[in-house]
Design brief:
By secondary structure, this protein is an alpha+beta fold. It has two domains: 123 residues, no CATH class; 74 residues, no CATH class. It has eight helices and nine strands. Strands 2-4-3 form a three-stranded antiparallel sheet. Strands 1-7 form a two-stranded parallel ribbon. The longest helix is centred in the last third of the chain and has 19 residues. The protein is globular, with a radius of gyration of 18 Å.
C-alpha cells in the first residue's frame, strides 16, 4: 500500500471482531466510522431484505423491489439506479437511515482489509475506501486472529472445490465473511509457550467450522 494514502483508524482488531460478530448475529448494528463516505451506497450493490424486516419494507417503494433469486418466497432485493446509486440515497445521505435494511446495518467494508480480500472488480469506490483502513494490534491475539483470517482465505481458495455447494462464496464479501466466521479453526497454541499461533488445520476441522455457521 502507498504511504501517501490518507489512512483511517480501523481500531483494535480484536475489538472490531467482537463488534462485527454482534452485528452479524443481529445483536447490534455495525459501528463504522464512515464520515462522509457513501461508497457502499454508490457501488451498484443489490440490497437483500428479508421478509421479517417489516419496518424497512414499509419505507421502501414496492416498485424498487424484486424477488431474490434462489431464496425462499418473501426475500427481496433492492437494486440501484443507472449511476449505481441506491435509490434511497438522497442528497448524499440515506433517506431511510433509521429504517434501513439489515444488510445495510451489518455492512462493514473493513472485512476486506481484515481478510486481505479485494472487493469485486466493479466495486472501485469501496476498494479505494478499504485501502485507507489501518487496524491496531495491541496484543498477540489481535495479530494471530488477523493472520488466521488471511490463512482461512488462502485455504478457501485452495480448497474451493471441496466446500459444500451452498457454502462456496460467490462474491468477495462472502469469502471475507466466511473466513472471519471460521478463523478459530486456524488458531492453535504453541506446545512450548502456550501462546496462540496460526495453524494449518485438516479439511475435516474446517468443514465442521463451516457447518456450524
Amino acid at each position: 500500500m502507498s504511504e501517501n494514502v490518507d489512512t483511517i483508524a480501523a481500531g483494535s482488531f480484536s475489538v472490531w471482531l467482537r463488534g462485527l460478530g454482534e452485528a452479524l448475529r443481529g445483536e447490534a448494528d455495525s459501528d463504522v466510522p464512515c464520515g462522509s463516505c457513501t461508497a457502499c451506497c454508490t457501488s451498484a450493490q443489490f440490497v437483500h431484505i428479508a421478509p421479517d424486516e417489516a419496518d424497512a419494507l414499509d419505507h421502501i417503494p414496492r416498485e424498487l423491489l424484486f424477488p431474490a433469486p434462489r431464496m425462499p418466497r418473501g426475500h427481496v432485493l433492492m437494486g440501484y439506479d443507472e449511476q449505481g446509486r441506491c435509490p434511497m440515497l438522497v442528497d448524499g445521505a440515506c433517506s431511510i437511515y433509521a429504517h434501513r435494511p439489515r444488510t445495510c446495518r451489518t455492512y462493514d467494508c473493513r472485512v476486506f482489509p481484515a481478510s486481505g480480500v479485494e472487493p469485486d472488480d466493479d466495486k472501485v469506490l469501496i476498494a479505494e475506501q478499504t485501502r485507507r483502513w489501518r487496524f491496531d494490534h495491541p496484543t498477540d491475539v489481535d495479530r494471530v486472529e488477523h493472520d488466521a483470517i488471511r490463512a482461512a482465505v488462502a485455504w478457501m481458495r485452495d480448497h474451493a472445490a471441496s466446500l459444500p455447494p451452498q457454502a462456496r462464496p460467490q462474491t468477495a464479501s462472502q469469502l471475507a465473511v466466511l473466513a472471519i466466521d471460521v478463523r478459530a479453526a486456524f488458531i492453535g497454541s504453541d506446545d512450548t509457550t502456550g501462546r496462540p499461533i496460526v495453524v494449518d488445520p485438516d479439511p475435516a476441522t474446517v468443514q465442521v467450522a463451516i457447518s456450524r455457521r
